[in-house]
Protein: DNA polymerase III subunit epsilon
Organism: Sutcliffiella horikoshii
Amino acid sequence: MFSFAKKHYFPSNLAENIPLSTPVDKLEFTVFDTETTGFNVARDDRLIELGAVKIENLQVIDDSAYQTYINPNRQIPREITELTGITQEQTDTAPQALKAITKLTSMANNTSVCYVGHYVAFDMQAIQAELKRNNLKWKNPKAIDTLDLIGYIAPSYDMRDLEKYARDFGTRIYQRHSALGDALTTAYLFTELLQLSQDRGLKTWGDLLKIKGSQN
């Protein structure tokens, strides 16, 4: 007879029961990005860096920024080092993934309404895979993608390049293929998109959730 270990839930530390009528400019968000050893994170590829920053009242809180390298417990492919600049030496002495994920969720501090990322489904999958390796499952991790808002504002856009979007919407661009750099770029892009969305009728947390649902 097979015996399966019971998975324990890992808290998302997000605010709960936020009134749907809460104005968008009164919400708090935790924006994050990851770098990995490759794209097959559900199987063999692992996290090697995590970066995050908070948004409050449509303002990026620069001094909240968090960055850490992560030990993937495997070799980093040469092409990934060439792309990201992250070396084996930097990760061999870095914390394990669970410690970095715990720091990310502690940033949310039960006051952020959701996590935010650019093509965030990949980053969420990478984190879920790391938690699964620790016999954990992320509990109710609400996330919104900048692509959802771009689809709302400019449906004809069909590219996913973060830097191109940041340039087109006139927002700051930080170091590419750096988890913190991409998190900061995403955060500034997200605040601009939220402001543009307000002009188009997106006023509340409930409105934002509808946009998320309509773009999935």
